[in-house]
Write a structure and sequence with these properties.
Blueprint: E1 9-16, H1 20-27, H2 32-42, E2 51-57, E3 68-73, H3 78-96, H4 104-110, E4 117-123, E5 138-140, E6 149-157, H5 160-169, H6 179-204, H7 209-219, H8 222-230, E7 235-243, E8 248-252, E9 261-264, E10 268-272, H9 275-282, E11 290-291, E12 296-300, E13 306-310, H10 322-327, H11 333-345, H12 347-353, E14 361-365, H13 371-395, H14 402-409, E15 414-415, E16 419-421, H15 432-439, E17 443-445, E18 455-460, H16 467-478, E19 484-489, H17 511-523, H18 527-538, H19 552-555, H20 560-571, E20 579-584, H21 587-593, H22 601-604, H23 610-625
Parallel strand pairs: 14-15, 14-18, 18-19, 19-20
Antiparallel strand pairs: 1-4, 1-10, 2-3, 2-4, 5-6, 6-7, 7-8, 8-12, 9-10, 9-11, 12-13, 16-17
Helix pairs in contact: 5-6, 6-7, 6-8, 11-13, 17-20, 18-23
The protein binds glutamine.
Amino acid sequence: MSDAIKHECGIALVRLLKPLDYYKEKYGTSFYGIQKMYLMMEKQHNRGQDGAGLASIKMDMDPGERYMSRVRSNQQQPIQDIFSQINNRINEILDNTPGLIDDVEEQKKQLPYLGELYLGHVRYGTFGKNSIESVHPFLRQNNWMHRNLIVAGNFNMTNVNELFERLVRLGQHPKEKADTITVMERIGHFLDDEVNKLYKKFKREGYSKIEASPLIAEHLNITKILKRAAKSWDGGYAMAGLVGHGDAFVLRDPAGIRPAYYYQDDEIVAIASERPVIQTVFNVDYDKIKEIEPGHAIIVKKAGEVLNKKILNPLERKACSFERIYFSRGSDKEIYEERKTLGKLLMPQIIEKIDGDLENTVFSYIPNTAETSFYGMVKEAQSYLNQQKQETILSEMDTMTPERLQEILNVRPRIEKVAIKDAKLRTFIADDNSRDDLVAHVYDITYGSVKPTDNLVIIDDSIVRGTTLKKSILRILDRLSPKKIVVVSSAPQIRYPDCYGIDMARLEDLVAFRAALALHKDAGTEAIIEDIYQRCLSQVDYTDTDVVNVVNDLYAPFTDEQISDKIAELLAPEGLKAELEIVFQSVAKLHEACPKNLGDWYFTGDYPTPGGNRVVNRAFINFYEGNKERAY
Ligand SMILES: NC(=O)CC[C@H](N)C(=O)O
C-alpha cells in the first residue's frame, strides 16, 4: 500500500481456564498468559500503531488486594513499551523477593498483571485524538467488583454523537467524548441496572449484602446487558469487555463488518481480530478456530463456561473486504488465496493495456502488502503466455525446428523487484519544493531492471489519495524510462468514506472523488455538485432509516474507465515521460475473489447500516462547505 491509511484496531483476549500453577507445571512459567498476550498483540501490530494497552484481572482475590491492572502507551513502539513496563515491574519485585519465582500463589498476590484474564488492544484512532486518554482498554471503576468494567474494541459507531447525547439526557456527565467511553458507559449503565436487580432479588431471598456479592457475579446475565446496550449502536464493531469479578465477552456487529475469531480448549479461550494470530500463537489448526458470528457474542463466565449467544438479529453479512485486500495478515490461508485471485483476475485488463506484448513487459509490485496479489498476477501471466506459445507452436508446426521451439519456450513473464521502500525520510526543510524532493525519495528503484522499450506493470493493493504515487513512486519509476507505466490496483476505486473503523472520512481526500469532480467540470455538468449538496441538506433531519445516499449520483454519469483515466491524468506528475494508465479491479471481480467478505461500501456507496447513508451525505456537506471535520 503506497497510501498510508489509518485503519483498524486489533483486539486480543485470553482467559486461562486452569489455575496458574497448572501453566507453571506444564509450560514452566506462571507468566504463560502474559507471554501469549505479548505474542497475540505483536502479531496484530499491523492493525494499530497509534497506541497499545493491556488489562488483566486476577480472580478470587481478598478484599484489599489488587485484582485489576492496566497499562497503556502511545509511544513510538507502543506494544514494546507496555511489555517493557510490565517486565520491569515484575522483574523488580522478583529480584527483591527471594523465593518468589517458584511460589505461584504468592506471585499472584504480589505481582501485577499476573492473572487469569487478559484483554489487549492495538489502536489506530478513528475518533478523537491520539492522546494517551484515547488508548484502550478503558476502565470504569467501582468498589463493587462486579461493577468494574474494562472495554476495548475495534469499532466505529456512526451514531456516537447521538449515543453521547443520550447519556447526557440520562443525567450522566461523561468525563470525555472519546467514543469508547460512550460505548463503555452504555454497557456500564445496564451492568449497574442488572447488578441492582440481582441484589434486590437476593436480598428478598434473605441473603446478606456480603453473601449477595458472589451470587451476583455468578448470575450476572451478560447476554441481557449486551442486548440492551447494543440495541442502539449503528456501526462496525468487535467489542471486548471484562467485568471485575472475571466474566468476559466479545460482541461482533450484526453485519459482521469487523472481524473476530475465537478458539477454545480445556486450558484457554483466545479471541483475536485475525485467525492466523491464534493459529500461530497457540499452534492450533485452521479449522479449530471459529469466527464469531455476526450479531453474536462469545461470553466467558468466571466459572469457565463459554457461551455463544445471539445478541442482535444479524443483518445481511457485509464483512469488510478491505480486511482481505490489505489490512489483515496475508498469512491466513483464505486471505492468501484471495489476494492471489485478486491479482489473477486483473490480467485480462492488463493484457489489453499492454496489447498482449508480454515479451516487452516487466511485472512488479509496490512493497510490501501487494506482494501476494503480485504472485497471482504473474501466475496468470504465465498461463496467458503458455496459451500464446501453444498457438504459435501449433501454427508453425510444419516448419518447427528444435531451435525455434526452444526460442518460443524461452519466453517467460519478466518479473523484477523494481520499487524499493526506504526508511521514512525526514522532512527537515520547511519549504514545499524541497519537501517534495525528499518525498520523491521515499521509494527507490532498481536500476537496469527495465528497458526503454518496456511496459512496466506495477501492482498496489489500493489507491486512496494517490499522493505517494504522484509525488514519489511515479516520478522515480519514470527514471527507468519505461515506454508505459500501468499501475494496477487490486482494489476497486475508493469512492466513498468509511465509517466503520477505517479512518477514511473525508471525500475530497479520495482521488476517485476528485476525478468525478474533474469529469463534471470537463463536461460542464458541475451544477450537479450544488444539487447534491442541496439534497444532502434536505435529509439532515431525517431518521437514519429514511436517508438515501445521494453522493452516488456524482459518479452515475461516468463509466469506471472514464474515472480510471481521469485518475491517471490527476496522478501523473508534471513532466512524466512514460505514458500512464491505471487499472482498477472491478467490484464484481472483487466479490468473486473474496466471496465471504462482500462489504464494499467504500467502492459502491452501499452502506450496510442506516447510519452509513447519513455519514456519506454529511461527508459531502463537509466537502462542500470546506469543513475539515470527520463526518461521524
Ligand atoms: N480503528 C478502530 O477500531 C478505532 C477504535 C475507536 N473508534 C478509537 O478511535 O479509538
